[in-house]
C-alpha cells in the first residue's frame, strides 16, 4: 500500500509488565502493510523490563515513542483484589500524545495480522464510519507477518458485515434500564451496589460483548473529543465483574456517533488458550 497522502494512524500500546511479549506487539505494528503509522507505547506502572524494551525500540525507530504513565490509579484493585481498571488510564494518556488523524490500539501481550490496519482504514472509508471493529483469532507465532485474504472472505462468506443498526440494537439491549433514568447520578452509585442480586438487572442489560474485538477498533481522532475511556464508576457498559473499559468505550461511541460498523474478519491475534469458535477453519484464508 503506497503511503502517498495517507493519513497518519497512531497505534497505542498500553502495557503493564509485558516485557516478554512487548517486542512482538511492537514488531507486528511496525510490519503493518499500512505504511504511515506511529506507535505509542505507554507503560502503566510496570515493574519488569517493559521500559527497557520500549525505550530500545524508540531509540532504533523514529516511528516508536515511549512513555511512562506519570501516575497510578488508586482504584486499580477492588476489594476482591481484582484489577478492574487495567489499561484505561494509559490509553487516555496516550491519546494526549497521539498525532494521528486516526487512532487504534494493540495490547502489549498480543499481535495482529500484517494487514489489520490497512483493512480497517479501507473499510472506514468505504462505509463512511468513524469507528471500525474487527474480530480476533488465537495468537500463534506462525501467524506473525501473515495477512488475511479479506477479498476472498467477502466473496465466500455472507455474514462478514455487522451493520450499524445491529450494533445500535446491541447497545440498547446491553444498557441497564436505570442508567438512562439516572443520568449523571449513575456514576455516584457504588459499583458493588449495582451488582446486588435484587437490583442488578436495573444496571445491567444483556452481558453480551460489543460486536467486535473491543481492544483494537480504528477510531477517527475527533471521536475522542467526546468519548474517552472511563474509570469504573463512570462506565455505563462495564462487565459484571467490574472491568469492561473497552466494552464501555465501544458501546458509548456507537451510541454517540451512530456510525459504528464491525466485520467478522479475524485480524487480531489474542494470546488465548482456545480458538475463537466463530472462526475455526479460517486458516485457509491466511496468506
Write the layout of secondary structure elements.
Elements: E1 9-15, H1 22-30, E2 37-43, H2 50-60, E3 64-68, H3 88-97, E4 102-105, E5 111-112, H4 116-126, E6 131-138, H5 150-156, E7 161-162, H6 164-173, H7 177-182, H8 191-194, H9 200-203, E8 218-220, H10 245-257, E9 261-270
Parallel strand pairs: 1-2, 1-4, 2-3, 6-9
Antiparallel strand pairs: 4-8, 5-9, 6-8, 7-9
Describe the structure.
The protein is an alpha/beta fold. The protein has a single domain (9-279), classed as Alpha-Beta Complex (Spore Coat Polysaccharide Biosynthesis Protein SpsA, Chain A). 30% of the residues lie in helices and 17% in strands. Strands 1, 2, 3, 4, 5, 6, 7, 8 and 9 form a nine-stranded mixed beta sheet that branches. Helix 6 crosses helix 10 (245-257). The longest helix is centred in the C-terminal third of the chain and has 13 residues, at 245-257. The model has no long low-confidence stretch (mean pLDDT 94).
Summarize the structure.
This protein has 287 residues and is of the alpha/beta class.
Helix/strand-derived class?
Answer: alpha/beta
Number of helices, counting only DSSP H or I runs of 4 residues or more: 10
What overall form do the CA principal axes indicate? globular
The name of the CATH topology is Spore Coat Polysaccharide Biosynthesis Protein SpsA, Chain A
What fraction of residues sit in β-strands? 15-25%
* CATH architect. name: Alpha-Beta Complex
Q: How far apart are the termini?
A: 16 Å
Sheet with the most strands, sense and barrel status: 9 strands, mixed
CATH class: Alpha Beta
Give the overall pLDDT as a whole number: 94
Rg result:
19 Å
